[in-house]
Amino acid sequence: MAAVLLVKGIIAYGRLHDFSQAVETFVAHRRQRGWAIPEVLYGLAGPMNTVLMIFRYREVHDWELECTAERDDPQYGRIASQLPYSAGSIQYELYQSSDAAAAPGTPPR
Prior knowledge:
Blueprint: E1 2-10, H1 16-33, E2 39-42, E3 50-57, H2 60-71, H3 74-80, E4 91-97
Antiparallel strand pairs: 1-3, 1-4, 2-3
């Protein structure tokens, strides 16, 4: 079954522009590694500094493999730490979908 990971966080006050620049490096690194590329959404209602990233995977196992690869990649850790989220604001939610087409552009593993 396909999996969809939602990562929602609040960007530190006054740092939304910094986030938009840092997320470009974050996405480029993920693309270079062949990992899922997030769709990045910026809040229009509610807190204006809320950001949602949507990652799509063909299988839950692909997400698990990617989690391991992220932990083993020190460069990824440095890049991800540059995203100026407010401390403690990041929330992760993982969903499953029976539709394999829910993962467009995700390379098969």
